[in-house]
Amino acid sequence: MLIPGEITIGFYKIPTLFLASVLGVLYWVFVVWYEGRKDGFSSDSILDLAFSSVTLSAVSFYLYSLLYRNIKLYHPNSIVLSLDYELTVSLLCFLSSLIPVLYFSKRWKWSKYRVLDIYSMAFSLFIFLFYVARTLVLGDVNSLALSGLIFVFYLEILRFRGYRFSSGTIFSLFCFFLAFSGILVLKRDGYLLIYGILVIIGTVSIILRRNISVYKRNLPSEFIERIKGKLIKKDRSLKKSQQLLINEDPYLQTDRATGNSESMDEAILEDYQKNVNDANKNIVKGLRIQVRKALASIKIGKYGICERCGAPIDKARLKAYPEATTCIECAPDSDNSNE
Predict the structure, then answer these.
(1) What mean pLDDT is reported for the chain?
(2) What value does the mean pLDDT take over residues 248-261?
(3) Prediction pTM value
(4) DSSP secondary structure string for all residues of 53-75
(5) Exposed end of the chain (fewer CB within 10 Å): N or C?
């Protein structure tokens, strides 16, 4: 035990793992908000969605725990007794947290698959933080192994997210990886059933996502090659713009160290230029991700098919906006969800 199992705050003794869970939840909400904002979602709406999920999960945790204890007390021969409490309740809370995604995505006309991808990244860090704390409190080697596997998964997803995976893929990979990691290092009562459910959820998500693209698009190969050339050229141009903005960052200038005696007005101007520079870098980064998504859709043979409704994208729209991944009817909504 590297840290105590309880921490005394005033007259109260609070379990360390509970505090770690609270910290993990706060970080989970931050990641959902941060990644959602990067993807173009409304900051207020994505926060509402995150807090709704947290609230529903907390209520569900209490109800599921109460139900589990009652079943265990009054029905000793129940099949629930063969299931591990922590795995069972964790799965049920995870499923409950997804209910607001399905509801609000439909209400706000968001891509639920894109939101699920963001949730997966946030859940990865939550699990990592919780099991690191569990390792420090209990000295559990399996918890350390699981936290390490999850952290590697998060880093790889963070590396390729946005232009290597179509929306919804990360969520399915998360379910598969969680089941695989659990089978390796977290074998408890009923683990095959619990992890089997995760595999089923991931598989169903893939099937439903694939069924959205019900249309086949046969664009002339010459047209595709011409579009591909434009996208590659634009990607290179955006890459140069990114580097130029980095070089122009006022905080990174080599002579900045000699400017400690600058006036207040000059300092304010420098901060303003920094904010403008950062905003421009975010814009260019978003544009480049969109271009790479279009290139990825060409590679997998789905270019010209709307990511949202699966309908063909008008050829004139593709000519004017080669990086388009949605049809004109879905464009106003997709501008906000950035599918």
Answers:
(1) 81
(2) 61
(3) 0.65
(4) HHHHHHHHHHHHHHHHHHHHHH-
(5) N
Q: What is the spatial distance between Cα 175 and Cα 201, in angstroms, rounded to a whole number?
A: 7
Nearest to 146 by CA among 182, 193, 118, 110: 182
CB within 8 Å of 269: residues ≥ 6 apart? none
The neighbouring-strand residues paired with 7 are: 14
Other beta carbons within 10 Å of 1? 9
In a domain, 1, yes or no: no
Whether 206 and 159 map to the same domain: the answer is yes
Please state, in angstroms and rounded to a whole number, the distance separating the CA atoms of residues 198 and 87: 11
How far apart (Å, rounded) are the C-alpha atoms in residues 71 and 79? 10
Averaged over 50-77, what is the pLDDT?
A: 80
Do 163 and 295 sit in the same domain of this protein? no
Average pLDDT rounded to a whole number, residues 114-126: 90
Q: Report CA 240 to chain centroid distance, whole Å.
A: 28
Most confident of 30-34, 153-157, 254-258, 299-303: 30-34
- Report which secondary-structure segment, H or E, holds 47: helix 43-74
Same domain, 302 and 186: no
